[in-house]
Amino acid sequence: MLKKIICVIFLWMSISSVFSQDIIDSNQNDLSEFSDGPYILIEKNKLIEKSIINGEVITKILTANVFDTIFPPGKAVFNNVKKIAVISDVHGQYDLAVEILRNNKIIDKNLNWNFGKGHLVIVGDVFDRGDKVNEMLWLIYKLESQAKDKGGQVHFLLGNHEYMIFQKDLRYVSAKYESTSKLLSLDYNELYSNKTVIGRWLRSKPTIIKINDDVFVHGGVSKEFISRSDFNIKRINNLMRKSIDQSKSEMKSTDFYDIYYGSKSLIWYRGYFKGNLEDKDVSEILNRISSKHEVIGHCSNEEVVSLYNNKIFGVDSSIKNGKYGEILLIKKDRYFRGTLNGKRIKFK
């Protein structure tokens, strides 16, 4: 039943998303042809589906068992994974992300899972800037279920922009979603609160994971973070999940906010690209976290890049600009750039 519902959602989104942003760009005040959604709200023993079709809010009452509403956190350390694909910083550029995933054979032409027992890692920042955030979230949601059926995994890591939405920092939200909020009479962050299906699903997601000898995290692991925290992946993820619905003032009452949300935190750190680190510094960090490589996003480049003799891989390939992007492919300890057209270029 759930798979059928998701298929219907994707059919509806594929039709509506073609029109909505062009209409908003041409006339912000005319919402008569604007479409968006769906958003699934949770209310006691029922689900409420809200969609916008041609400027009209369509509300459907669903039974509680149509969607899961409880999402237990998954494990965060995996071994003996034979193939991995990594993408990051999609920022609402759904169409470009789909093209990258399809051309690199992670999904098929119908947007279904095509990576077998492989693991796909999204290293944060699906939210903000672009106008198809909701479409991307539902695609990841669907692929997660399909991958499990095939023995694979999808890992959606939370980046700084996911946490910004949770904390009501809406500075980078696309103008499209101002219209959505207006029509649904909900602040944008409420569409992903603990009272929505996608909001609860997001709250189950990790901030950092390890697959084989690689650590995956949005910003990166800094020396300062290691020195100020107990580097335990499970503990870190539990602390970050717990913080999602805490206020800033509550977190700032101790040094927690500075450690976990400051400039040297896992989600905001830029030191591998903009710091003064030497190769020995990176080796020391990797030794402290029992890893051979880190795979990170957050800092934009024109392609997937390798730093510090292949110790650090940067996978923010500027998908957010909507023009070009790449994916990192890992197979048997070999690392490749997967280009937009599907060509593989091995890192030496």
Descriptive report:
It contains twelve helices and 15 strands. With 348 residues, the protein is of the alpha/beta class. The chain has two domains: 62 residues, no CATH class; 270 residues, Metallo-dependent phosphatases (Purple Acid Phosphatase, chain A, domain 2), CATH 3.60.21.10. The strands form three sheets. The protein has a six-stranded mixed β-sheet. A hairpin with a 2-residue loop joins strand 2 and strand 3. Helix 1 runs antiparallel to helix 3. It is globular and about 60 Å long. About 3% of the residues have low confidence.
Quick overview:
It contains twelve helices and 15 strands. The protein is of the alpha/beta class.
Secondary-structure blueprint of this entry?
Elements: H1 2-26, E1 36-43, E2 46-53, E3 56-63, E4 77-78, E5 83-87, H2 94-103, E6 119-123, H3 133-149, E7 153-157, H4 160-166, H5 176-184, H6 197-202, E8 208-211, E9 214-217, H7 223-228, H8 233-243, H9 248-252, H10 256-261, H11 271-274, H12 279-288, E10 293-296, E11 305-307, E12 312-314, E13 327-331, E14 334-338, E15 344-346
Parallel strand pairs: 4-8, 5-6, 6-7, 9-10, 10-12
Antiparallel strand pairs: 1-2, 2-3, 5-13, 8-9, 11-12, 13-14, 14-15
Helix pairs in contact: 1-3
What are the key terms here?
348 residues, alpha/beta, Purple Acid Phosphatase, chain A, domain 2, 2 domains, six-stranded mixed sheet, 12 helices, 33% helix
The name CATH uses for the topology of the largest domain is Purple Acid Phosphatase, chain A, domain 2
Shape: globular
The helix-strand sequence is: HEEEEEHEHEHHHEEHHHHHHEEEEEE
Sheet having the most strands: 6 strands, mixed
